[in-house]
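Weekly modeling sync, notes
Attendees: S.R. (lead), two postdocs, one rotation student

Agenda item 3: backlog of single-chain predictions. S.R. asked that every request posted to the team notebook include the full sequence so nobody has to chase files. The rotation student volunteered to paste the first one in as an example of the format we agreed on. Action items at the bottom.

Example entry:
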Amino acid sequence: MSVQISAPGRSAYTDGEVHGGTGAEQAEAARGYLAYAGTCTVTDDIVEHHVEHGLFPNGEDTVLPRHATLDENHRLHLELVTPVIVDGQERGGILTWER
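Predicted structure, as returned to the notebook:
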C-alpha cells in the first residue's frame, strides 16, 4: 500500500536539481507533501496501514487505523480512527480511493 498526497501549487527548486534546493525550499516542499508506504490489514470495517517507509520519519513503524466505508459510487473512504497532530492541533483525515 502506498499513499502520496501533494498540496497544489508547490514551488519548484530554484536550481532545478532533484536533490537540490535550499534548506528553505526543501522544508516548504516537505510541508506540502505526505507520503508513506507499507502493508495493510483489514478486520471488519477497520483498515490498518502498517507504515514501513515515509517522508515523516517518526511515522515509520507505526500503525494508522482507518474506518472504511464504501459509497454508492463504489469509492472507498478511509477515515482516521484517531486524529493526528498537525501544527499543534488535532486533525482528522479521510482518504478517498476511486477507480
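Discussion: group reviewed the output briefly. The longest strand covers residues 33-43.
Action items: rotation student to repeat for the remaining queue; S.R. to check formatting next week.
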